[in-house]
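Q: Here's a chain of 201 amino acids. Please give me its 3D structure as tokens.
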Amino acid sequence: MPKIVDKSQKRIEIARKAMALFAEYGFENTPIRRITAHVGIGKGTFYDYFKDKEDILNEIVQIMFADWTELLVAKIGRQEDPLQQLFTLLQEGANLGDAFKQMMIIYVDIWRWSVSHKESEEFVDKFRYFLLDSKTAVAGIIKKGQAEGRIAAELDPAALAGALIALIDGMCMHHMILKQDFDVDTVCRSFFDAMVNGIRP
């Protein structure tokens, strides 16, 4: 009896293996033949699952955003206090394990590639939707904090959420470049204390 292959699962499996190549060589410098050799499939099999290299990148983008969201939702879900949820979001969002370092490299490479290629509107849209969804989720935490009297009612939840999401991106990049000279926990704690208590003496 022939083996039944779950095509969507196999597609994800191939894309996950290709992520290491995109992180090491970049999207533009990773030809399909390198992907097939690394994954251990033939070129024909590749085209059974993906129409071209942009299609596997599309799958990788979905995997990255889903993994990142799943991790943060799991961590934040353990907290009841909206302020603690925001702190956890900052700390966990910028603390990169090996898998998330790989994702961040690809994230930056895709971002650069997307904004420099006019034909790549599909990827720009994916980034836009991911960022807007993230901002909406964080704004929801802020609104909950406002309703509970833990966060000042006059603050704009969407604007503050946008700033926090942008801060996470920036901290990730600084952490990757500066390494041990950029202590994420210290930076998060200092920023969060300043945000909650103000910076005026």
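Q: Can you summarize the key feature?
A: The CA atoms of residues 52 and 94 lie 32 Å apart.
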